[in-house]
């Protein structure tokens, strides 16, 4: 299974530009609202340091790629249609794309930090990006609340048969990928009793918001940071303590697209995520000037931000780790270091075995940490970038 990150935001903020830069696809981009209607699904990558060089090996990735010792591990990226205020009541493209959101594990909220698009995605000046940050959370919360309230209604209709509230709510909210046990835990964590008929409007809203935060963790991609207005907004908003709880990444999707295009046309050398690149081709003066501006930007912000936003979503908010299947003997049947998997931060050696194959998990005896050559037990929580051989009766 592959993790899925959704790009969300109001129209014309640069979601498709970000998507194309990250996946090198060719989804239409445009300075008009609702350029994107159907969600597009593509493959993007997150970086981790490859383990092969430590073992004196050159890796042979079965998926993704490796450049100069940096492993690019695939994830799925979805470009979702622009969201406008009132979407949960069917405005704009309405519920259709709220449904597309269901299938994502985390979100990158793309915000136009330059303030040059209004709430509907039309060109303007001086729009406050704070409004966009709040509106998207409110819109998602309103949608979650609708579904939660349907669940509460169903529970109340079934009172006579004495159901477990978390089971009924779990069925109603199943599309969000939350289990009845996790629902119960969320209810208790905000100080409510597990009795929906006792929840007033405020309690219902708080619960909807908590479930949304838990099932759709979010990174804010502050896009169009190549424009001076965006940099002013960035300074103000990221210094405002009211936004301390959010993860912001400064981004220029345009810059990333230009660098990827240049690399594809063999006129520059650029490893995605790097803060610098080398011009290798003969370019007209205005192209060179444009690239020098990008170099300045990427130097100041430590990259164009596209790669960094993906990694913030995967490693910071989803809290995943990378694990390499290894061999303690140094013998590889199918080529060295073919795989690198993303797993939850608390994944154990036995869970890793199950991830490889159910049979391998069922026959799990122990693991071997290939760096120290020590045995690891079923319950051992693996480190990020662990290299593990699984010993199983079902090899
Ligand atoms: N200056 C600047 N402009 C950008 C950047 N990213 C995107 N744009 C421009 O913003 C406009 C909208 O970009 P899209 O990628 O089509 O926006 P979208 O969010 O997918 O829009 P919808 O599909 O309509 O929801 C286009 O004119 C892009 O060229 C950026 O990093 N910097
Ligand atoms: Mg689009």
Question: Alpha-carbon distance between the termini?
Answer: 21 Å
Structural class determined from secondary elements = alpha/beta
Main sheet specs: 7 strands, mixed
Uncertain residue ranges: none
The hetero compounds bound to this protein are: guanosine-5'-triphosphate, magnesium ion
How many DSSP E strands?
14
Which descriptor suits the 3D outline? flat
**Mean pLDDT, rounded to whole units?**
91
Rg (CA only): 23 Å
How much strand?
Answer: 15-25%
- How many helical elements? 12
Helix content: 25-40%
3D architecture notes:
By secondary structure, this protein is an alpha/beta fold. Helix content is 36%, strand content 19%. Strands 1, 2, 3, 4, 5, 6 and 7 form a seven-stranded mixed β-sheet that branches. Helix 7 (228-238) links the parallel strand 6 and strand 7 (247-250). The longest helix is centred in the middle third of the chain and has 29 residues, at 129-157. The radius of gyration is 23 Å and the shape is flat. Magnesium ion binds next to helix 1.
């Amino acid at each position: 299974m592959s993790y899925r990150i959704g790009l969300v935001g109001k129209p014309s903020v640069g979601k498709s530009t970000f998507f194309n830069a990250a996946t090198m696809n060719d989804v239409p981009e445009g300075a008009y609202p609702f350029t994107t209607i159907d969600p597009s699904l593509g493959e993007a990558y997150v970086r981790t340091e490859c383990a092969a060089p430590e073992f004196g090996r050159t890796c042979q990735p079965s998926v993704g790629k490796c450049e100069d010792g940096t492993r690019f591990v695939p994830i799925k990226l979805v470009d979702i249609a622009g969201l406008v205020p009132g979407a949960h009541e069917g405005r704009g493209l309405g519920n259709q794309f709220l449904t597309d959101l269901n299938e994502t594990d985390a979100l990158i909220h793309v915000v136009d930090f330059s303030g040059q698009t209004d709430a509907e995605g039309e060109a303007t000046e001086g729009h406050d990006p704070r409004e966009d940050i709040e509106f998207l959370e409110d819109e998602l919360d309103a949608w979650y609340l609708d579904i939660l309230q349907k669940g509460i209604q169903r529970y109340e209709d079934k009172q006579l048969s004495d159901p477990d509230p978390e089971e009924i709510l779990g069925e109603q909210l199943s599309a969000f990928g939350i289990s009845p046990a996790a629902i119960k835990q969320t209810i208790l964590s905000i100080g409510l009793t597990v009795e929906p008929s006792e929840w007033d409007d405020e309690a219902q809203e708080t619960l909807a918001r908590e479930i949304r935060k838990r099932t759709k963790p979010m990174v804010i991609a502050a896009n169009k940071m190549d424009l001076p207005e965006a940099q002013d907004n960035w300074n103000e908003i990221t210094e405002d303590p009211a936004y301390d709880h959010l993860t912001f990444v400064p981004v220029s999707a345009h810059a990333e697209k230009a660098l990827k295009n240049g690399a594809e046309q063999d006129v520059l050398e650029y490893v995605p995520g790097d803060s610098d690149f080398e011009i290798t081709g003969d370019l007209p003066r205005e192209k060179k000037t444009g690239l020098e501006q990008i170099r300045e930007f990427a130097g100041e912000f430590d990259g164009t931000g596209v790669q960094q936003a993906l990694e913030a979503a995967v490693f910071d908010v989803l809290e995943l780790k990378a694990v390499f299947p290894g061999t303690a003997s140094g013998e590889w049947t199918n080529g060295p270091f073919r795989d690198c998997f993303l797993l939850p931060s608390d994944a154990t050696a036995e869970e890793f075995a199950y991830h490889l194959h159910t049979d391998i998990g069922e026959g799990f005896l122990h693991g071997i940490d290939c760096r120290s050559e020590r045995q690891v037990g079923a319950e051992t929580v693996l480190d990020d970038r662990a290299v593990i051989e699984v010993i199983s009766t079902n090899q």
